[in-house]
Design goal:
Strands 1-3-4-6-5 form a five-stranded mixed beta barrel. Strand 5 and strand 6 (91-104) form a beta hairpin. It has one domain: OB fold (Dihydrolipoamide Acetyltransferase, E2P), CATH 2.40.50.140. The chain has one helix and six strands. By secondary structure, it is mainly beta. The longest helix has 10 residues, at 57-66.
């Protein structure tokens, strides 16, 4: 059985981070995903879905550091459902995504050494830095050669 969710969307608010008595960190934020379609009249419509995201420990630290309201982010995790009682005594149901991987998809300004494909520069004891870094080609410039495909 598989319970896996992958979302790319914009943050509706900055992550809210709490420190529990046990010392663990937990964070919550929401992201919006959009789907566009043409209605019966031929007009474009946009359907926005909101998703509540929960992050724990190191991911909560990363969310607090890297994610900001309005920013584009990638979330991978599992869908969960839980019940709780609100302050007025009403029983509520909530659906959340408990993330096991998050990544900001916003471009960051960098003053340090350049990195490629999100890998750090290869330097350190016993390692030499590459003479010339290789940049990844964009998929737009690649031509599909379907005659060489094995399937």
């Amino acid at each position: 059985m598989i319970n896996k969710v992958t979302l790319i969307g914009n943050l509706g608010r900055d992550p809210e981070i709490r420190h529990l008595e046990s010392g663990a960190m937990v964070g919550k934020f929401s992201i919006a995903t959009n789907e566009s379609y043409k209605d019966k009249a031929g007009e474009w419509q946009t359907l926005t879905e909101w998703h509540e995201i929960v992050v724990w420990r190191g991911l909560a630290e990363r969310a607090e550091r890297d994610l900001k309201k309005g920013g584009l982010c990638y979330v991978e995790g599992k869908i969960t459902h839980r019940k709780y009682t609100d302050k007025d005594g009403n029983e509520r149901n909530i659906t959340e995504i408990v993330a096991n991987n998050i990544k900001s998809l916003e471009k960051r300004e960098s003053s340090g050494p350049k990195t490629y494909d999100n890998f750090p520069a290869v330097e350190g004891p016993g390692m030499a830095a590459p003479a010339t870094p290789v940049k990844k080609e964009s998929t737009d410039s690649l031509q599909a050669e379907d005659d060489d495909l094995p399937f």
